[in-house]
């Protein structure tokens, strides 16, 4: 059965009852995994613990927690605790995030993200194995650290948030999967090739690393709802390209949308959010998101799979209501008979 994941931004805008209901629905529909991240809302581990207590098969992914927010020892202890509580269903999604988040929100210097992520994974792997961690690295010097409660899984999966070339190579060398976001279909071959450079260093095949892209989806019910979904998707994409530093701007520019990215950035800089959203071209939108009726959305997800997405993770633009989330989840479920 083809696997598909489900992402929910578990802020206080979503009540606990709705969160539990959505997680149960995803579990019953045969979704592979439930992912949530961290921004200015609730932390990922507490939310995933809530989900773990109300589901049976759904894997539980942090998507993502930033390496700058916790020590590697604490991350290892926390993901192991989630794995024990869920009876072996945890997935650790890590990422460096960006300067806006790390320095502006966490108040720590955003330095050497690649090297830091590499060292984090090395320490976390050692800790999760149950052995003693004696580590003399660039960022951490540890002596005789040992977890007395290792995870259920012998090799707990670690995914890295990856879009840049060096991050993709890092994922290939050290991770079990990568979590790109806002990726157009045409780029998946490039992603796999970059991952392959990393896996060659570690004696693995590029196919050993799961490409699990966040794909923003909206299954519409009629023309008016379709227009609403398109508006939300354009606005959300514009926010990432125009308002989240240079990372996503550079990524979509490399993907062939340089003119659109520049127009978005310029409009955003003047505070014209509406014009920034309008600067997302039809070609750009059609290449990156999933939008349409139920059958069109299923066909588009299939297109992402054919292009190289191993584990599509269904995500939603900001402002999507619960009715649309339920409709989209049902339409894209692996066990649906629609």
Structural features, described:
The protein has 338 residues and is of the alpha/beta class. It has 2 domains: 5-222 and 289-332, TIM Barrel; 223-288, no CATH class. The chain has helices at 16-28, 44-52, 72-85, 99-104, 113-128, 165-174, 188-201, 223-243, 247-269, 273-278, 282-288, 294-307, 322-332, and strands at 5-7, 33-36, 59-62, 65-66, 90-95, 133-136, 141-145, 158-160, 177-178, 210-211, 214-219, 290-292, 313-315. Strand 9 (177-178), helix 7 (188-201) and strand 10 form a beta-alpha-beta unit. Helix 2 (44-52) runs parallel beside helix 3. The longest helix has 23 residues, at 247-269. The radius of gyration is 19 Å and the shape is globular. The two termini are 16 Å apart.
Question: Secondary-structure blueprint of this entry?
Answer:
Blueprint: E1 5-7, H1 16-28, E2 33-36, H2 44-52, E3 59-62, E4 65-66, H3 72-85, E5 90-95, H4 99-104, H5 113-128, E6 133-136, E7 141-145, E8 158-160, H6 165-174, E9 177-178, H7 188-201, E10 210-211, E11 214-219, H8 223-243, H9 247-269, H10 273-278, H11 282-288, E12 290-292, H12 294-307, E13 313-315, H13 322-332
Helix pairs in contact: 1-13, 2-3, 3-5, 5-6, 6-7, 8-9, 12-13
Low-confidence stretches: none
What is the H/E string?
Answer: EHEHEEHEHHEEEHEHEEHHHHEHEH
Structural class: alpha/beta
Report the major sheet.
Answer: 11 strands, parallel
State the shape. Answer: globular
